[in-house]
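batch job 7 of whatever, protein = Heme chaperone HemW
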Amino acid sequence: MNTLPPLSLYIHIPWCVQKCPYCDFNSHALKGEVPHDDYVAHLLADLDADLHLTAGREVRTIFIGGGTPSLLSAAAMQNLLDGVRARLPLAADAEITMEANPGTVEADRFSAYQRAGVNRISIGVQSFSAQKLERLGRIHGPQEAKRAAHLAADLNLRSFNLDLMHGLPDQTLEEALDDLRQAIALNPPHLSWYQLTIEPNTMYASRPPTLPDDDALWDIFEQGDQLLTAAGYLQYETSAYAKPGYQCQHNLNYWRFGDYLGIGCGAHGKLTQSDGQILRTVKTKHPRGYMQSRYMDKMHQVETKELPFEFFMNRFRLLEAAPREEFAIYTGLDESVIRLQLDEAIAKNYLLETNAHWQITQHGKLFLNSLLELFLDE
Ligand SMILES: C[S@@+](CC[C@H](N)C(=O)[O-])C[C@H]1O[C@@H](n2cnc3c(N)ncnc32)[C@H](O)[C@@H]1O
Ligand code: SF4
């Protein structure tokens, strides 16, 4: 195989000031100070140990996620990104995103992160209602969220994103739309608009709040989507909206089934090797074990028969048409191995096929599970 998929780098920072009741991310309430320098040293050692899996490829995007990456000091962020640049070929125009919690953002630190190389900031706003933020267990109020968004806007970064959630406990349609209006007024190039889900093993799972019913959720989605569209945002994935040209390149690479190296506690990786094998890696989840230099938790080779399902499961999250040639580049398989399944999907009106593309239909979106099942190897 000579064409390998584009490569991204994910870096996980596992601490938060406190744990939000709805959150099942690998995040731990901070006891004491973040071990800034130690953790960065471990991240770079973890990266060193994985470098041989990247086949010397250039990294196109970096995403520093959490947890709360904005708890990391500016000096630690500088060392981290300097260390990455010294170890990997990084594309000259690489998108480098960092997640920030509005309650942990200081003006000086934002511009220092930018000097370290961060060119896209993703701010976890969630809602602009003080009462809703309190119920969500957030450590910030609406004013801090607005301040963080203004800071990001003033830095003239390549882009910035606001994370909002809807379908919040006891939320009305008007409250959900008001959150969107306030977000749109801040003019972010990108908006992530997630429906709150109750995840197992969270505080909300053991004591569930009252959420809007399915009809109310549908109205929120429909009218919210109209509001966003009218404001110039295009939906390109279930929860992702962007002004034209501002889609998140890092997430696009995941959804196109691109490759990514994952470093830090609990980080996942997917790495195509020069011989066509695809490896999945999972790093040690808990900071304690990870910081005893036990970085790799699991590594296994993806079986060839699983690849078509995995490819389409990611790919069909995107609303854009899928170039047919990408199937071979991203899975290493020839399109002929899925010809029968494709024909069945087309016959069932789940999929349209042109010479160059596949496009999922509205019917295919409604019956996504049935469509994906066609590509499951029994
Ligand atoms: C890793 S968190 C992001 C950053 C930062 N830790 C924060 O919370 O501000 C990514 C985003 O996922 C969304 N999210 C987290 N848990 C969720 C849930 N249970 N349902 C829906 N969205 C969720 C939130 O919008 C959150 O900002
Ligand atoms: S701040 Fe973000 S990562 Fe941390 S617990 Fe809350 S939602 Fe999860």
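notes: The chain has a mean pLDDT of 96.
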